[in-house]
Every structure is written in C-alpha cells, then in structure tokens.
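tool_call: predict_structure(chain=1)
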Amino acid sequence: MSNSGFSKFNLSKETSKVLDNKGWVEPTEIQRETIPAALTGRDIIGQARTGSGKTAAFGIPIIERCTPSGHPQAIVLCPTRELAVQVAEEMNWLQGNKGLKIRTVYGGTDIERQAKELASGTDVIVGTPGRVIDMTKRSHLDLSGISTFCLDEADRMLDMGFFPDVIWIVEQAPNRSQTLLFSATFPQEVLDASEDLLDDPEQVFTGGTEIEVPEIEQRHVRVGRANKLWVLGRIMLTLGEGDQMLVFTNTKRMADMLVDRLDRHKFESVALHGDMPQNKRERILSDYREGKHAVLIATDVAARGIDIDTITHVVNYDLPDETEAYVHRIGRTGRMGRSGVAWSLVTANDVLQLDRISSTWNLNIPSSQPPDLPKGVDRDPVRKREDWDEVSDSFGMVRIRVSVGRKEASKREFSDWLKAEAKLPDIAIGDILQEDHSAIIEIHVEKAGATLEILKRREWEGSSLKPELLDRPAVAFNRASMLA
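tool_result:
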C-alpha cells in the first residue's frame, strides 16, 4: 500500500493486509475523521449516515487496541441482535489473523451454550444490553477489565428505553478509559444524556442529517403483535386495480413467515431478502416492476435495490430500528407526483420508537383505526384475536371498566362479589379505581378472559355491568393504594 488512505493510520500488519485484500484503499469520511483520534484512546462522537462505514470506524481502533489475551477488553453494545451479529461478523473479518476472540452476547439463544463460549476466552464482546446484564449477573461475564466502551446506534442506546441498562453496564466497567458513540443521528437530548459518559470527546458530524421527507399520507395503528396480520389484511383489501404494496419486516425470517401466513388466508405475496440467490432476487424484482406481484415483503437491505414509481402503499409491519430507515421506507411510495400512503403497525413496545421517529424528522404520524371492510365484504379474511399481552401492563394486569361505582358498592363489597362470581384468588385482583357510577378494576392477564366473559353475563342488583376492556395504561396503577 502506498503512503495514503488507510496507510496513514499506521495500522498493524494484520489489519493492513486485510484491508488491502478487501480492496479498501481510501477510508470513508467518517473513518478518515475518527480513526486517528480513536487510535490514541480519545473519546469519540461520530455521526454518519447508514452505509457510510461506521462499523469499521469504531471496529478498526478496537481491534488495534486489543490483544488476544482471552479476557474482555472492549464491548460494543447494539440495540438489536441482528445488528450485533452484523457488527461481530464485520469485526471478525477486519481483524484478519490477529486471533482476537470476538463473542456475540444477545437474547433468543441458549444461555448455557453462550456461557461456554465466553468461558473459553473472550477479548471483544458485541451484544445487546439485556443479555449482557444477564450474563454479568450470572458471573459468566466479567466487565472489570473493559477499557473501550462503544455504543453503536447511540441515539437508540441512550434513549429512555435502554438508558438505565447502559448505565448499569458502564458501572460494571470501572477501568473504562475510552468511550465511542456512533450513530446516524444525534438529537440534542441524546448528546445531553451522553455528557456523563464522555471526557472531552472528538466530535465528528459527517454527511448531515438532511433527508428529504416525502409528502405522503402517514398513519399508525396501535395493535398487538397477535393482530398485526389482521390489520395488514384490512389494508390489503383497500388495494385497487394497479396498486402495489411494499411491506417491510426487520428480519428475513419474518418476511418468509409473513408470506406463508398471508398465503393461508388467500392473499398472494412474495418475499425478498438477502438469503435468496441473486438471480432469484432479480427475477422477483423484475416481476414486481412489471406488476406481476401486487405485494412485496422485504427487509431494508433487500429493498435498497427497489426504485419503482408505481408503489402506492408502504406498510411497516415491523417499525424500523433506525429513525432514518423509516424515512427511506416511506419514500418508496408517492413518487412522480402520485399519491401514496404509509402505514405503521405499532405495538405497545414500539410507542417510544414511533415518538422518536416523529420528533427526529418532525413528522406527523397520526393514530388511525384499520380501514373499514370494503363494500361487499362482510367478514375479515384474517380473524381478529384476543391479545391480552398487548392490553396488560408491566405487572401483567388488565384493566376492565364496569358500571358499578362507589354509590353502588364499596371496593370491598365489589371485590368480594367478584372473587365469588369469577372464582378468583386474591392475587388475581389488583387495584379498583372507583368513580360515582363506574369503576376500573385490575385483573391478572391469566384470569382476564374468563372474568370478562363472566362480567358480561352477570348483573349487579338487576343492572348490567357493561364491562369494557381498556387499553394498556401509560403508567401502572400505584401499587401502594391497594384495596382498603
């Protein structure tokens, strides 16, 4: 290599050889602006758009600063298991023959197998906060020797959803000497939250965040995972002659599963993702362009090659993990002056991410009910299911409103009656919040369905109870104010 590009960084022979073999001669802007400072051990805030080489920007300095000792020296935290796997794979090929043991630590896999891998030696950890905390508490992971602490997609990692977990992990790494934060966006509240983690950081903001937000109709539907297919079926029924829909999922497996589930309900669709052979992907895209498929289900990576002006509907079956990805997704419709609509299916766990997307890009994404059944269709092609997990709070309690208030009965009277009629143990009944002629009662999710049916059939002193299932509350009832 000549004395230019990556050679200016004075990287090790192993890393230089890997980059040379890969054909990487000139670093990207984010790599050029952050790697030299990161190699000296300085804290970094690095912002660059997706696909700009952020992983190598923090991965190369981490690899250069670690040695094959078998003890954790660096940790990279990611918001999703898919991103953790992707980061670990790229860091593994970046290290070449250096011999570092780069381990992934994330949920959804066997804990004992993961523990055995960690016990056989670990130099770099790439993981998600929840499983990292779990493995640390189980003593399978020792973070005391961590010197470099990195957050990928730092804007997500420092929002209020992950922030407590991140702080807990930081506290287990008292010898941390370097912190690297990389993200596609850095809202001011994230920069404020990061202040206590950083010491005089080098701040690099490349590429800007100016993304043209398409002027299309945007809506979101609050729905539990169990009923996403029901909502998607309703939306698909609105497709007119010549309309085309692009449905986004976050994983390849979900794309395949969704095609299979839609097929069972007589909906035709086709999947597109990175596990497919290139010739098959090209054939699917060609057929879609020609209008042979009305509905295409794709992952973000696969959808990068889609540039079709006739897409009328975009559906976020899974809300994207990156705020920028949302804008790119919805931009697939409403092209060339055509009208377009983007639907997002939002579970209770997605609400914070939707708020983050809206605030980051100053978007109005109003709540909406699923579309009505079109004329001539008298029943849903996908049956709506009861989804108790979606309406239960973090304590597993479901709220039901009844028309028995303090003027009809005391809390104790109604509680005793309810336990007798529904055969409920004391632990299954939570708080009872009374007004004059109505009350909201909490019932544990395991007993909620049966209790609701009983309330529909019973009367209180000759009057109907008119039970009504309520949405999950933003904040659970105060557990200190239990039955008097």
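agent: The two ends are 78 Å apart (CA to CA). Proceeding to next step.
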